[in-house]
Design goal:
The complex is a heterodimer of chains A (330) and B (217). Chain A has 330 residues and is α+β, with helices and mostly antiparallel strands. Chain A contains twelve helices and eleven strands. The termini of chain A are far apart. Chain B is built from seven helices and six strands; from the N terminus they run E-E-H-E-E-E-H-H-H-H-H-H-E. Classes of the chains: A alpha+beta (330), B alpha+beta (217). At the A-B interface, helix 2, helix 3, helix 4, helix 5 and helix 6 of A face strand 4, helix 4, helix 5 and strand 6 of B. Strand 9 of chain A pairs antiparallel with strand 6 of chain B, so a sheet runs across the interface.
């Protein structure tokens, strides 16, 4: 690990100001950052500890949603009575990720900023456009079994690793931040992540020193909340394909609400609202599901080892919808 | 370099000129000779370094010592020593829940916190009804212990040991409520993965999905 200067911030604004140098980093849970610092993939010269900031509350908002402090741990968020009762898709997504130990440390804000688990990103003696822009991407013709099929570019096919962020994308969460000049802004999650294009090292719209302070959830969505995760082990493995869903079916068997977001297949948490529109107010028959899968995967591109993710996603989509239509969980 | 005081197993330790890069695990093992926490992978994957911070289990290899001034840190040494074993330590002995023993301090620290999580009604990925998790089920214990690897594969006996203590402590805690039990999902000695969706739905419980009845009540 490279040497760094350590400081502890007392207020969000002070944290943002302290972290204004380009090579500074915030640390909260640190479960991903320290791992990357040990490999010297991340080499901040300054580490600003934000764990003592008062950002650990979960409070109701005026319009029936919830405002979550960025330091709320993944464990606390998943077990919170309001999340369990009204946003179970978020509880299930969080609980699908990592381990009890990691979820106790990992924070809400930090989870959004997890880096990819592409093998080449982690292997410092290998080229990687995300780690060292312009060096190339060996994954495209190499070991890419776990990597993305949607949102990819000629420069990068790294998958976004988060489960939590997939549910947040489905729920239309908003991310509140403070910048180094003390100003604040709110970023809808659909605008938060950047596709890799030819700049895969830029993963989100945060500016240098900009700190996530809260995440706001809109009012709950009625329906069956599920999170399915297909992976190589029964526990503690990243998704090959995952699907967060909220589906509501009326008495005549019509899909009145259907929201879907996917993990493991995209370079960012993947949601296509056109797919949801195609399915909404249908009876979810096999033809409609096939059309929905065609639309979802229209731009999908496998690179050999990860070709299987295309049929796997189709099957998972079908299972999620048919299970909801069968009324399971009701 | 940094100077700080850490509280480990109820004792204060002053650390002078500590390299800020030092993890809590390395402080314990290298500076303080508290060698219960073990270094396995050093990347949060194996759980051998599991300790408790303010009662919660964490990977001590993945946190900086300098961030933990004022926290109550507990290692296996603070959970019980040979002359004063905790209930869980005794259960690990009784059930032969280890072979080489290298992962055992982490397993026991992890399970100690797991019992508290079950008492607090925390759900897990395999929980069918998120609002009423039954942490005593074998598949629940397996899922909740997935952050601790045992390369001797003593898993069946680790689960037996934890089950025994959970049944004692969780049922003791709520004598008025219906006694819950791991019965019907007993460990048979051969490890098997958690039940499939179909197996779960064929049991008396409903399936692993939750319906939001609409709006906030």
């Amino acid at each position: 690990m490279k040497r760094f200067e350590y400081s502890r911030a007392d207020t969000p604004k002070q944290a943002a100001t302290s972290a204004s140098p380009k090579d500074a980093a915030f640390i909260a849970g640190g479960t991903n950052l320290l791992d990357l610092m040990k490999y010297e993939i991340e080499t901040p010269i300054k580490l600003v500890d934000v764990t003592r900031l008062e950002l650990e509350q979960i409070e109701p908002t005026a319009d029936g949603g919830l405002r979550i402090g960025t330091l709320v741990t993944n464990s606390d968020l998943a077990a919170h009575p309001d999340i369990v009762a009204n946003y179970p898709v978020l509880s299930r997504a969080i609980l699908a990720g990592a381990t009890g130990q990691l979820r106790n440390k990992a924070t809400t804000g930090g989870n959004f900023l997890q880096r990819t688990r592409c093998y080449y990103f982690y292997q410092t003696d290998s080229p990687c456009n995300k780690r060292e822009p312009g060096t190339g991407c060996p994954a495209i013709n190499g070991e890419n079994r776990t990597l993305a099929i949607l949102g990819t570019s000629e420069a990068c096919i790294a998958q976004h690793p988060s489960d939590m962020a997939v549910a947040m994308r489905l729920l239309d969460a908003k991310i509140e931040t403070v910048k180094t000049d003390g100003s604040t802004r709110t970023i809808p999650i659909k605008d938060f992540y950047c596709l890799p294009k030819d700049t895969p090292h830029i993963e989100n719209v945060l500016e240098s020193g900009e700190l996530i302070t809260h995440v706001v959830l809109p009012a709950p969505i009625k329906g069956i909340h599920t999170y399915d995760k297909v992976r190589d082990r029964a526990s503690y493995a990243f998704a090959l394909v995952s699907c967060a869903a909220v589906i509501d079916v009326d008495d005549s068997g019509k899909l009145t609400t259907i929201r879907l977001a996917f993990g493991g297949i995209g370079t960012e948490p993947w949601r296509n609202e056109k797919v949801e529109a195609l399915l909404t107010d249908t009876d979810g028959n096999s033809d409609v599901i096939r059309q929905a899968a065609d639309l979802l995967l229209k731009e999908a591109k496998g690179n050999g080892q990860n070709d299987f993710k295309i049929p796997l996603t189709r099957r998972l989509l079908k299972q999620v919808i048919q299970r909801a239509l069968a009324g399971e969980g009701a | 370099m940094s100077t700080l005081t850490l509280t480990i197993n109820k004792q204060d330790y002053q650390l002078d000129n500590l390299d800020t890069r030092t993890t809590l695990l390395d402080v314990c093992r290298q500076r303080l000779q508290i060698t219960g926490p073990k270094k396995g992978c050093d990347h949060g994957q194996c759980g051998a370094c599991t300790i408790l911070i303010n009662g919660r289990r964490v990977n001590s290899c993945l946190t900086l010592a300098v961030m933990h001034e004022g926290d109550e840190i507990t290692t296996i040494e603070g959970i019980g020593m040979p002359e004063s074993l905790s209930e869980l330590q005794q259960a690990f002995k009784d059930h032969d829940a280890f072979q080489c023993g290298y992962c055992t301090p982490g397993q026991i620290c992890s399970a100690t916190a797991l019992i508290e999580e079950v008492k607090q009604n925390w759900p897990s990925y395999v929980t069918t009804d998120l609002q009423n998790p039954n942490g005593l089920l074998v598949q629940e214990i397996a899922e909740r212990m997935s952050g601790n690897i045992c390369r001797c594969s003593a898993y069946p006996n680790i689960i037996k040991a934890i089950s025994q203590v959970l049944e004692n402590q969780v049922n003791d805690q709520s004598p008025s409520s219906e006694t819950r039990s791991t019965q019907g999902s007993e460990v048979t000695g051969i490890w098997s993965p958690p039940p499939s969706e179909a197996q779960l739905s064929s049991s008396s419980q409903n399936t692993a999905h939750t319906k939001v009845a609409g709006g906030r009540s």
